[in-house]
């Protein structure tokens, strides 16, 4: 799909047309819960093991603390870390342990999508339907996601990852401006510029660096959580389907370009990618260290393990992705 084909006044029609072209409903059977993770099979994962050379591991996670980006939209807050037992308690002798033993315990209260995280297949609906055409009210209830909860991919998300540093390729000083719509042409030109290690194939996990996170850390969070941002253009929907990638993650809050490309729309690419393609989306990942490492040796693929915390029935989950080079 080209930008010229996008009618900004007709999100409903454009979304419906895209669904007709790219829907994966029924592709892996009516009972499927893995969506595009079906592309990341054992053979694909085993082949990716050869990408580990130096053994250097790089965390792609942002911090989980009160200094995070959240502003309270839809009750999303930053994590609240509370100590339950402390060294103060131990020294005061009030923990009740014998022979001088002391210890510390703590807890965290947080929305599951407040920092680096995966969107699960139950996170977004299209006209009341979830992934594979299931009625949303029969899948996601107050008890959670009974079919495609994030625990269904607890042992799946590990394999070859490819960093597409679009910020470095098209930005100023490595950063794309807010509102920059990343098209298929931008992705393909980035791949060409970075070289053969950037070729995207079946089962790959694509990592798109825009540079917005680096800017937010330098200038302050501002509207990082929910405001204007660079991101994927709606027109990349066919590329996302055609490449048969297993997942895609960005260093932004919402994955797709914001403001969205229609006059009145909210996250239209989510509306196709998750419930129809069955694609797993990662948001608020940190690619700064990885981007520097990849640029230094002109190698942009790596082994990635990014298993979500398997909260039963959750429609998204925190993750500490580890890229190993």
What does this structure look like?
The protein is 24% helix and 18% strand. The chain is an alpha/beta fold and 325 residues long. The protein folds into two domains: 285 residues, Glucose Oxidase, domain 1; 30 residues, no CATH class. It has a nine-stranded mixed beta sheet. Strand 11, helix 9 and strand 12 form a beta-alpha-beta unit. Helix 1 packs parallel to helix 9. The longest helix has 12 residues. The mean pLDDT is 97.
> Main β-sheet: number of strands, strand sense, barrel status?
9 strands, mixed
Strand content: 15-25%
Distance between the termini: 34 Å
- What CATH first level of the largest domain would be assigned? Alpha Beta
Average pLDDT metric: 97
H and E string: HHEEHEEHEEEHEHEHEHEHEHEEE
What do we call the CATH homologous superfamily of the largest domain?
Putative cyclase
CATH third-level topology of the largest domain = Glucose Oxidase, domain 1
Low-confidence stretches: none
Q: Helices, strands, pairings?
A:
Layout: H1 11-22, H2 42-48, E1 57-59, E2 80-85, H3 87-92, E3 105-109, E4 117-119, H4 136-139, E5 140-141, E6 144-145, E7 158-165, H5 166-170, E8 181-182, H6 184-194, E9 205-209, H7 212-219, E10 231-232, H8 237-242, E11 247-250, H9 268-277, E12 280-283, H10 288-297, E13 301-305, E14 316-318, E15 322-324
Parallel strand pairs: 7-9, 8-10, 9-11, 11-12
Antiparallel strand pairs: 1-15, 2-3, 4-12, 4-14, 5-6, 7-13, 13-15
Helix pairs in contact: 1-9
């Amino acid at each position: 799909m080209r930008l010229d084909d996008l009618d900004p006044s007709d999100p409903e029609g454009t979304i419906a047309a895209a669904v007709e072209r790219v829907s994966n409903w029924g592709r892996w059977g009516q009972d499927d819960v893995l969506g595009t993770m079906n592309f990341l099979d054992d053979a694909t994962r085993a082949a990716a093991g050869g990408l580990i050379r130096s053994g250097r591991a790089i965390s792609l996670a942002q911090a989980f603390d009160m200094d995070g980006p959240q502003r309270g939209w839809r009750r999303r807050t930053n994590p609240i870390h509370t100590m339950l037992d402390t060294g103060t308690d131990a020294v005061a002798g009030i923990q009740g342990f014998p022979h001088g033993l002391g210890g510390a315990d703590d807890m965290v209260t947080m929305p599951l999508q407040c920092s680096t995280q995966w969107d699960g297949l139950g996170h977004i609906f299209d006209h009341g339907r979830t992934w594979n055409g299931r009625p949303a009210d029969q899948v996601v209830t107050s008890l959670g996601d009974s079919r495609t909860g994030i625990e269904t991919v607890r042992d799946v998300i590990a394999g070859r990852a490819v960093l597409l540093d679009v910020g470095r390729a098209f930005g100023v000083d490595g950063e794309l401006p807010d509102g920059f719509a990343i098209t298929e042409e931008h992705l393909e030109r980035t791949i060409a510029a970075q070289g053969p290690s950037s070729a995207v194939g079946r089962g790959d996990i694509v990592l798109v660096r825009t540079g917005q996170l680096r800017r937010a850390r330098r200038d302050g969070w501002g509207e990082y959580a929910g405001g204007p941002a660079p991101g994927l253009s709606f027109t990349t929907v066919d590329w996302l389907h055609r490449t048969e990638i297993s997942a895609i993650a960005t260093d932004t809050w919402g994955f797709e370009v914001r403001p969205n490309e229609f006059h009145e729309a909210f996250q239209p690419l989510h509306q196709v990618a998750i419930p129809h393609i069955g694609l797993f989306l990662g948001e608020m990942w940190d690619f700064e260290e990885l981007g520097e490492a990849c640029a230094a040796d002109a190698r942009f693929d790596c082994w990635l393990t990014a298993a979500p915390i398997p909260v039963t029935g959750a429609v998204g989950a925190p993750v500490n992705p580890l890229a190993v080079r």
